[in-house]
Each structure stands twice: as structure tokens, then as C-alpha cells.
Amino acid sequence: MAPSKLEAGSRLSINTVIRKLYYYNGERLIKEYPVAVGKPSTPTPPGNYKVKNKTVNPGGVLGTRWMGLTIPGGNYGIHGNNNPSSIGQAVSLGCIRMHNHHVEELFPQIPIGTPVHIYSRYQTDAVPAFKPATESNSAGGGNGKTYTVQPGDTLWKIAQSFNTTLETLIAINNITNPNRIAIGQIITIP
């Protein structure tokens, strides 16, 4: 396969709640990796960014590879690390940490300019779709409206706010435990 074909559709999606990085070529998931993300006092900023620079062997806490991101207001990136036990934790200053052998595997596949989508949503039953939060991605349909869970929200409060029922939100969003929603989770509104 020619590198240009692979690179043309490369993109990354990072879920900071379940701490996974997904590497896609077009709509096809190529591989997923466990990652460490920002701690609560210095969270990894959600949003849509791009890879802006790449460095081999940046050293120290950055491990063996660095992919800088276009996140404004700081020097954020996806990088290796010198503490493998941190992977799967929320411990960084906002960067996305990977095992060195994983970032070394991913690094040559990701050209500068690759889109990177960072989001926080509790999701265990499916690989995330790479869609903006304004589009509906539920199997139950809906009219395309979504709501991002805020601190202090309950599913019942959200249902009341949008003049719908708790049961409808549970069904449309495939929620298995309505008492367990996460800040930043995207709820589809009927």
C-alpha cells in the first residue's frame, strides 16, 4: 500500500474518560491504544486539533517520540513516557502519554496535519464515531440535538430540561446505568 493512501485518511480520536487513543484510516479503525491523560487540575483539553510537529527522541518525561498538537494556550502533545505505570491514569499536565513501544509504532503512520479529536465520554460498548457533537450518532435517531453533561447534572434533570422522559433518554442513548453518567458525556436529545 502506498504511504500517501494510508496517510490521506489517517486520524486520531482520544477518549479521556476511558483513556484510549483510536487510530483510524478513513472510517476503518486500525488500532486502539491505552493512554494517560491530564489530571483533574490540568485536564487534556477537548476539541478538534491537528498534529503540528513531530520529534524523534525528545527525551526525559516525553519518552521516545513527540507529536505536538495545535491546542491553543500551551504545549500539548501525544508522546511516550519514562513511567509506563502511568498509562491508564489521569496524571499528566494535559498531554496524552503512550507506552514508548506504542508511540513508536504509531509515529510513522501519522503525518503532520493529521486530525485529532479529543473528547470525554463514558463509552464501553462501541468504538467512538468521529463526528462533531452537533450530529446525532444514536441508533434511535433523534433530531440531531445533543447535550454535554455538566457538573451536578443527573439524567433526570436533563430529561426535565428538555421536556422528555428519563426512559426515552435511556433508550435513545443506550444507557445501561442511568445513575452513572459522566461530566462531558454527550447525551442525544429526542
From TrEMBL:
GO terms for molecular function: glycosyltransferase activity; peptidoglycan L,D-transpeptidase activity. The active site is at 79 (proton donor/acceptor), 95 (nucleophile). The keyword Cell wall biogenesis/degradation applies. GO terms for cellular component: extracellular region. PANTHER family: L,D-TRANSPEPTIDASE, L,D-TRANSPEPTIDASE ERFK_SRFK-RELATED. Belongs to the YkuD family. This is Uncharacterized protein. It comes from Desulfoscipio gibsoniae DSM 7213. The lineage of its organism: Bacteria, Bacillati, Bacillota, Clostridia, Eubacteriales.
